[in-house]
Amino acid sequence: MSMSRRGFISALSVTGLSLSVASCGSSDGDSGDGAGVRFGYIADYNGASLLAIADDQGLWKKHGVSASYKVFVNGPIQIQALGTGNLDYGYIGPGAMWLPASGKSKIVAINTLTYADRVIAQPGITSITGLKGKKVGVPEGTSGEMVLNLALRQAGMSMDDIDKVVMDATTVVTAFASGQIDGAGIWYPLIPTIKEKVPDLVEVASTEKIGGSFPTAFVAGDKVKDATNEKVVKVLQEANDWRAAHKEESIALAAKLLKVSEDKVKEDAANVETMTTADLVAKTKDGTVGEWLDSMSDFFVSTGQLKKAPAADSFYTADLYTKAGA
């Protein structure tokens, strides 16, 4: 499943951002010292599972923090909210990694590696080449566009070979289901929703088959105090280890928070690579996490979203993570 860093970077191309917010929810715990944090997440297993576990296991109270949750449709809008002081922490996928790399927020914890992104096509289209000249919907600036670019490059094609239709993720779902577009760059857990309407859709490409490492992470605003970061990271690490040891239970808890069926969350979780805290500490110390982040930064330099690739430790608080995980 591996791809060279150079090959991974050269295969990618992203432009623009889609910034829109979804409905809100909250979950509060008792605070031991009055420290309350506002936490953003995306409505999928990656974004919701640790927060659901933290509630269920009483981890916020254990570490002297109370937390309220708000759901968003993507990472960039959360980082925007961090910058305006309307949010303290957020969850981002690989498509938003250029924002902490550019100095907007700090990564306080790596979460997972995700392989949830796909290029899907209407029944009868069996390969990426079958989308040549066809209408392909994509939320611009997201991992959906990332996988579409990767797949086209691998097939010796480019965006010029398709009729790219820019639309937000929700519109992709309805447009594909109604047959208004022939294909889409999109991700789980939205794909099962589309399959309910188009059960014979074809997944013509995936990040897992294309290769590369696609990290997800939790980020903090610059105004959050170090003492609060330490507590929150401990909560995330403890929840992370509980998730690693209780996969089925974590799926059930995430489904409850997201108010969707466990089957949908299970299908989404199948595209996620979880790691224990000890593993993430080791990967931080040996430079593996830095390599993941360097690859993403190099990619964003190639797109022009970063002028130059910063050192990973300039936006990932590695010392904080390893200390909390000791």
* Rounded radius of gyration (Å): 19 Å
Full CATH superfamily name of the largest domain = Periplasmic binding protein-like II
Binned strand content: 15-25%
Number of strands: 11
The description of the largest β-sheet is: 5 strands, mixed
Residues in helix, %? 40-55%
Q: Termini, distance in Å? A: 31 Å
Shape: globular
Order of helices and strands: HEHHEHEHEEEHEHEHEHEHHHEHHH
Strand order of the largest sheet: 7-6-8-5-9
Briefly note the structural class of the backbone. Answer: alpha/beta
Please name the CATH architecture of the largest domain: 3-Layer(aba) Sandwich
Explained architecture:
The chain is α/β, with parallel strands linked by helices. The chain has two domains: 19-114 and 214-324, 3-Layer(aba) Sandwich (D-Maltodextrin-Binding Protein, domain 2), CATH 3.40.190.10; 117-210, 3-Layer(aba) Sandwich (D-Maltodextrin-Binding Protein, domain 2). It has 15 helices and eleven strands. It has helices at 5-11, 45-56, 59-62, 75-83, 98-101, 143-154, 169-177, 190-197, 207-210, 226-245, 247-258, 262-269, 277-285, 288-303, 318-324; strands at 35-42, 65-72, 89-92, 106-114, 117-121, 135-138, 163-166, 183-187, 202-206, 215-220, 272-274. The strands form three sheets. The chain has a five-stranded mixed β-sheet with strand order 7-6-8-5-9, sandwiched between helices. Strands 3-10-4-11 form a four-stranded antiparallel β-sheet, with helices on both faces. A two-stranded parallel ribbon has the order 1-2. The model is unreliable at 1-34 (pLDDT under 50).
